[in-house]
Amino acid sequence: MKPLTPVLLLLALSGCSSSVVPNFTQTCPQFFANPDGIVSPPTVFQRQNYKQICQMQNNTYEFATLYDTANRIPVYSAYKFEGIMGCKRKTNWHIEPQLDNSAAGGRMGPDRKIALPNQAVKADYTGTSNHGYEKGHLAPVYHARSQSCSNATFTLTNAAPQNCSFNHGKWETTEIAVANYLVKNCSPNNSTFIVTGVVPGPKKLKNRVRIPSHFWTAFCCLDNNLKVKASRGFLGKNKNDPVQNMTISNLEGELSNLYGTVFSVFGGRLAS
Ligand SMILES: *[C@@H]1O[C@H](CO)[C@@H](O)[C@H](O)[C@H]1NC(C)=O
Ligand SMILES: *[C@@H]1O[C@H](CO)[C@@H](O)[C@H](O)[C@H]1NC(C)=O
Ligand SMILES: *[C@@H]1O[C@H](CO)[C@@H](O)[C@H](O)[C@H]1NC(C)=O
Ligand SMILES: *[C@@H]1O[C@H](CO)[C@@H](O)[C@H](O)[C@H]1NC(C)=O
Ligand SMILES: *[C@@H]1O[C@H](CO)[C@@H](O)[C@H](O)[C@H]1NC(C)=O
Ligand SMILES: *[C@@H]1O[C@H](CO)[C@@H](O)[C@H](O)[C@H]1NC(C)=O
Ligand SMILES: CC(=O)N[C@H]1CO[C@H](CO)[C@@H](O)[C@@H]1O
Predict the structure, then answer these.
(1) Which member of 114, 125, 189, 245 has the greatest number of CB atoms within 10 A?
(2) Residue 97 located in a structural domain
(3) Inside any domain, residue 264
(4) CB-neighbour burial class of residue 20 (10 A; exposed 0-12, middle 13-18, buried 19+)
């Protein structure tokens, strides 16, 4: 075995691993669809306020998030689906310490009582359900692969203000329909990937946290030869209206209009 370089040695000694990373495609590729073996993440916006997070809890990466520190909401979370596991909802919320202190450790940490510059804290959502909004998960408990993954979804970097009746209505119905479809059509052994995102809207909660205008989700499952077996996209306004079921390319067209820039969901590699 070769001797470790000083940098690797330092990393090994400190047990240091990072959550906010330069390129999540490299650090946690396992959460992104890999048709034909090519890791194909959604579009990564390149401005300073967008941070790539490999979501880590208890030394395990559970999913990946592109986070917008200016709007204090995620753009999307990407994860693998392995079946309906019936995980319990754990209600301790976490934050991502490295977004406000680059020297912090690489794991998600407990919620903070004070407002943080680069991310939402739980207090930003206190009382907002009276105004019709609550913390809506992007990567949801219902799709979690394990209880530890379910626990890890309770981070504010995976949540955005969601219309309460939508969260418990048509959006929940969509999460269930997607899971049922995948269980039926994509066996757990086949690789099944989901990305769930939001589009920033005109208003903020408490002048701190941007309220999304839309929620969207998309899945892609691959067969044992890494060919795309099934895929579909879903888009809904942030109110309890019907959610549209469409092809990935139609979703990409809609999202490109909404984001005002070309946006692809699976690296632009799925034609339909
Ligand atoms: C991230 O890494 C992937 C895979 O190595 C590479 O294709 C991509 O260009 C990188 N992205 C950036 C912004 O460097
Ligand atoms: C980490 O794992 C341990 C043991 O499984 C568990 O008790 C603990 O609650 C976990 N931490 C979090 C934050 O979920
Ligand atoms: C999930 O969180 C709960 C509550 O904090 C904890 O008791 C449990 O051990 C955690 N489970 C895992 C697998 O980390
Ligand atoms: C979405 O539409 C497709 C094509 O009509 C259909 O096969 C599928 O069952 C619908 N729902 C889901 C969750 O994919
Ligand atoms: C699951 O997928 C792996 C890798 O593609 C393959 O080697 C294995 O035979 C599959 N298992 C079943 C039960 O099909
Ligand atoms: C939430 O959605 C419901 C049903 O679509 C709508 O009546 C209500 O006005 C929405 N709430 C907010 C705060 O937009
Ligand atoms: C299309 C395809 O390859 N599907 C595979 C999914 O996984 C099951 C078993 O886990 C295989 O039998 C299928 O062939």
Answers:
(1) 125
(2) yes
(3) no
(4) buried
Question: Rounded to two decimals, what is the model's pTM?
Answer: 0.90
Mutate to test the pocket of ligand 4, among 194, 232, 248, 249 (most ligand atoms within 8 A of CB): 232
Establish if 4 belongs to a structural domain.
Answer: no
Report residue 63 as tokens.
């999913």
For residue 69, the enclosing domain spans 19-259
CATH number at residue 70: 3.40.570.10
Q: Which of 163, 167, 171, 209 to mutate to test the pocket of ligand 6 (most atoms within 8 A of CB)?
A: 163
Query: pLDDT tens per residue, the chain (272 residues)?
Result: 444 444 443 343 333 467 999 999 999 999 999 999 999 999 999 999 999 999 999 899 999 999 999 999 999 999 999 999 999 998 899 999 999 999 998 899 999 999 999 999 999 999 998 889 999 999 999 999 999 999 999 999 999 999 999 999 999 999 999 999 999 999 766 799 999 999 999 999 999 999 999 999 999 999 999 999 999 999 999 999 999 999 999 999 999 999 999 999 999 888 64
Across-strand partners of 68? Answer: 50, 73
Atom of ligand 2 nearest to the CA of 90: 14
Structure token digits, residue 206: 């408490």
Number of folded domains that form the chain: 1
Q: Which helix (H) or strand (E) holds 190?
A: none
Evaluate: CB of 129 within 6 angstroms of ligand 6.
Answer: no
Residue 3 lies in a domain: no
- d(CA 56, ligand 3 centre) in Å: 14
